């Protein structure tokens, strides 16, 4: 979990740094931008979070709050 949080913090730091050009191409990429990669990370993490919630619901260890 520490690796995940460390990587997440690195992405947060990168995106929130005012000197970061979010539309700049990543030097080692094939035209991807920093913004695209940040959105990809957010989407990927949200997908897996949804899987974890679904799994807990199936196991009966997740109580909806609504």
Q: Low-confidence segments, ≥5 residues, pLDDT <50? A: none
Q: What sort of overall outline do the alpha carbons produce when their principal axes are compared?
A: elongated
Average pLDDT figure: 90
Main sheet attributes: strand count, strand direction, barrel closure: none
- Helix percentage range: 55-70%
Alpha-carbon distance between the two ends? 29 Å
Our Rg estimate from Cα atoms comes to 16 Å
| Coarse structural class | mainly alpha
Can you count the helices?
2
Secondary-structure element order, N to C = HH
InterPro entries: DinB/YfiT-like
Protein name: DinB family protein
Q: In words, what does this structure look like?
A:
This protein is mostly helical. It has one domain. The chain is built from two helices and no strands. The two termini are 29 Å apart. The mean pLDDT is 90. InterPro entries: DinB/YfiT-like (IPR034660). This is DinB family protein. It comes from Stieleria maiorica.
């Amino acid at each position: 979990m520490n690796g995940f949080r460390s990587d997440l913090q690195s992405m947060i730091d990168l995106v929130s740094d005012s000197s970061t050009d979010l539309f700049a191409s990543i030097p080692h990429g094939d035209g991807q931008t920093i913004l695209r990669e940040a959105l990809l990370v957010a989407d990927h993490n949200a997908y897996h979070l949804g899987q974890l919630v679904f799994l807990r619901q199936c196991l009966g260890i997740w109580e909806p709050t609504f």
